[in-house]
Amino acid sequence: MKLYHGTSARHLKDTLAHGLRPRGTDEGRWAEYPSRPDLVYLTTAYPFFFGLNAVDEDEEDVLVIETDTDLLFEEKLLPDEDFISQALAHEKKESFTEFHKDVRNQLEGYQHHWEDSLEGLGNCAYKGTIAPDQITRYCIFSAKVRREIAMDLISPSISLMNFKILGDAYQQKVAWMFGDVEEYPMFETMFPAPVIDSKDDGLKEMMEGRKIFWDKQSKDRSGIVVVNVI
Description:
Layout: E1 2-8, H1 12-18, E2 39-43, H2 47-54, E3 62-68, E4 77-79, H3 81-92, H4 97-105, H5 114-121, E5 123-127, E6 135-141, H6 147-153, H7 160-177, H8 187-190, H9 193-196, H10 201-219, E7 224-228
Antiparallel strand pairs: 1-3, 2-5, 3-6, 4-5, 6-7
Helix pairs in contact: 3-4
């Protein structure tokens, strides 16, 4: 299974030389629910969202690194603490925050749920460095050049329910960014079928215009560079 990590393109040279390393003593991006400093977080659905949050300036490009579970050590794969915390909160009908800190600190005890974490939330984690020879491809994305795409990628809701509904669309967007599918799945996921099939002439015209717009976006590969590593 292909997994992805989003960051800033300023880390490309270091990553290709030394691998994808945990943040260590570097400050995390999520102050309220900090990531573990010894883990590399991976996703099938949100790498460009995480990358867009990692850049410091509008001019900076996003870097998304691809790896594959076949190249990783399974015993180092862990669930994302958000998945376990959300699942416990749902089961016990309590607040997510009640569980997050303890789950984060005891994540190794949930190691056998790493695949469930990917299936339920689209995220997992890896303990330690992902070596250069475990990297398969990378994508450089310019949000400055592709602002419409960036605006769409910057606003997912990362929850069990939302992933159940839109997880496939999020994954298809990643596949499009890497050139694995031809169509960027924006139109159908943005507008439900009753709206698309509306008989209202004004609304129908607007829908047709939006579809033409996103069809054009799908055919445009500017601002996106994909490189095979192995």
